[in-house]
Design goal:
Elements: H1 3-8, H2 12-23, H3 27-36, E1 44-49, H4 56-69, E2 74-79, H5 98-101, E3 106-111, H6 120-134, E4 138-143, H7 148-154, E5 159-164, H8 171-178, E6 185-188, H9 196-209, E7 219-221, H10 230-246, H11 249-280, H12 283-292, H13 298-306
Parallel strand pairs: 1-4, 1-5, 2-3, 2-4, 5-6, 6-7
Helix pairs in contact: 2-3, 2-6, 3-6, 4-10, 6-7, 6-11, 10-11
The structure holds guanosine-5'-diphosphate.
Length: 310
Amino acid sequence: MNIEERLLNGDKRACARLITMLENNDEEAIEIIKKLYKHTGGAYVIGITGPPGSGKSTLTDKLTKELRKKGKKVGIIAIDPTSPFSGGAILGDRIRMNDLALDDGVFMRSMGTRGSLGGMSKATWGAAKVLDIYGVDYIFIETVGVGQSEVDIVKTADTVLMVMVPNLGDDIQAIKAGIMEIADVFAINKADLSGADKTQIEIEMNLDLNESKDYRPPVVKVSASKNENIDKLIEKLMAHRNYLEETEELIERRKRNTKLEIVKLVEEELMGLIMDKALEENLLDNLTQEIILKGLDPYTAKDKILEIIK
Ligand code: GDP
């Protein structure tokens, strides 16, 4: 059997191989996804974001175990925003999730981008499609932090789970400003610590401000490390899914996400083409130096870089 047939037959090793190819920016993997694209759409994608250290990784682990109890197959993609200069994923496959790796119904991978600039969305979305074709019921896309490019990826999930923690203090202001509106469900993790009620009030107050929609994101207090209220959180995630399906919002959302994906893929590809070349020729450093010495301005520098694709 070739790799395509093996993937369609739910072969875990074929799945792993294709995702590695995507990480290495191997176009052959993209060609395979193109051929099998009509087999996608069966998996439900949940994006998980929130500040570093809020417990996203621990929570993903517990959510996965809860779904496994219900007999669901789960794929997990953790995005590691590695610098293109250091290569490889920072965290590797995170240790605390390793017992899941032994479960045949779970596929887990940390993804970084290697080699070229950008390409993270392409690799991550590609991996999600591979998992979808492979036949998982749920895909978790989890970010390590809240950087813009990671948030852009998580935003294209069917349901976005935002993980908060008590005593965020001023951080909550920053989070509110940028990304709170992408959340469909809020989890206040580490509710075993004090301050969870206060955080809940802050989030609810914020939600009161834009209560125009017929769906209001629920706020659930959980403790991932103590495995408390995980079933309740799953219930809320499922309720959002039901809402989307019943109102046909899911079709609309997937349409919007597909559009975002195309734009992002074009953007990434163009940036890659241009900036790889500019870096290779030291063009970026040289132009910067000229600007500093007032021999050039940033606009002319931009034109010179764009000449690469002309
Ligand atoms: P991430 O960076 O968001 O993925 O966070 P991690 O999952 O790595 O968790 C960061 C730290 O918080 C770890 O030391 C966890 O053990 C701890 N942690 C996770 N969940 C809880 C919780 O519910 N309560 C408490 N007290 N600590 C937790």
